[in-house]
Design goal:
The chain folds into 2 domains: 74 residues, Phosphorylase Kinase, domain 1, CATH 3.30.200; 187 residues, Aminoglycoside 3'-phosphotransferase, Chain: A, domain 2 (Alpha-Beta Complex), CATH 3.90.1200. Helices cover 52% and strands 15% of the residues. Helix 3 packs parallel to helix 7 and helix 5 packs parallel to helix 9. The relative contact order is 0.13.
Length: 296
């Protein structure tokens, strides 16, 4: 607690009230409210200086520095708004983040090959895995509810895997002769809970931020919220402010189209729910991709 209090003294703050929320402490002081949280081992406050240099200031003001053991930031009281509006605002701010931090680096063929081989290996594994599942199901005299649900929709799974195979090969053809690759600052932990709206918009929780290609922010957000929102609209909002390159868009579509592996064990009801959720996700993804690819 000594270092905790030392930090408050350093910035001449007299605490009045404390409120603990997990590892975060909200402190009311004589100079307003602040958020205090332990600095992670890999925390790098230089990210905020870089964002400032790129004229991106959509995050709470940071008062602590690299030498402090805690991160001290201003407390932003959130204004309630519909979730649909909140995620629209979030995706807009992400498009600004990527726009303002864009830079180009020398393309790495080794990185391209690794992505290409990882996707193909994943597809091959899932094709064999789900083919074996179908063989087992067809050997049964009677199907369980989960088996019947899977069997009725297995063509959708194999169709998605075939799509991934075709498009990752197309992606590799696009990038194999590229000399430069577009990189941005990724927030890398996008979630509705990490976006706050007041008079301005704020992204919080930058602990996982790093430099990479822009699609990975979109990918993680989609995996978390695909079934919750209309991503056709969100994707249009993003691309209006930050159009993806063809190779970026292709890889994004491949990654979100890869079906997960479902273990056919455990509680039958939970298994049915898992399969149903996967099928809903695949239909949702197909709707997102349909304007870009003609259906066979």
């Amino acid at each position: 607690m000594r270092k905790f209090n030392d930090l408050l003294e350093k910035y001449d703050l007299k605490p009045l009230r404390y409120k603990m929320i997990g590892k975060i402490t909200i402190i009311d002081t004589d100079k307003g409210s602040f958020v205090l949280k332990p600095k992670l081992r890999n925390d790098n406050t230089k990210i905020y200086k870089y964002l400032d240099s790129r004229s991106f200031d959509y995050y709470p003001k940071i008062y602590s520095d690299d030498n402090d053991d805690y991160v001290l930031s201003e407390y932003i009281k959130e204004i309630e708004q519909p979730k649909e509006q909140k995620i629209e605002d979030l995706i807009y701010i992400v498009s600004l983040l990527h726009n303002k931090t864009t830079h180009y680096v020398e393309a790495s063929m080794d990185d391209y090959k690794k992505i290409y081989e990882d996707v193909l290996n994943n597809v091959e594994y899932l094709q064999e895995y789900y083919s074996d599942i179908m063989d087992i199901i067809e050997s049964h005299v009677f199907m369980s509810p989960s088996e019947y649900l899977f069997a009725r929709n297995c063509s959708k799974i194999f169709g998605a895997l075939n799509f991934c195979t075709d498009k990752i090969k197309y992606w590799f053809d696009l990038v194999k002769d590229k000399k430069k690759q577009r990189f941005v600052v990724l927030h890398n932990n996008l979630d509705l809970s990490h976006f706050i709206k007041n008079k301005d918009s704020y992204l919080i929780n930058w602990d996982k931020a790093h430099i990479d290609v822009p699609i990975f922010d979109l990918y993680k957000l989609y995996k978390r919220h695909a079934l919750d929102f209309n991503f056709e609209s969100l994707f249009r909002t993003y691309e209006k402010n930050y159009p993806l390159l063809e190779e970026e868009k292709t890889l994004f579509f491949v990654l979100i189209s890869l079906p997960p592996k479902i273990e056919f064990t455990g509680d039958e009801l939970l298994l049915c729910m898992q399969i149903s959720k996967m099928i809903d996700y695949m239909y949702k993804t197909e709707n997102l991709l349909s304007p870009y690819y003609a259906k066979d």
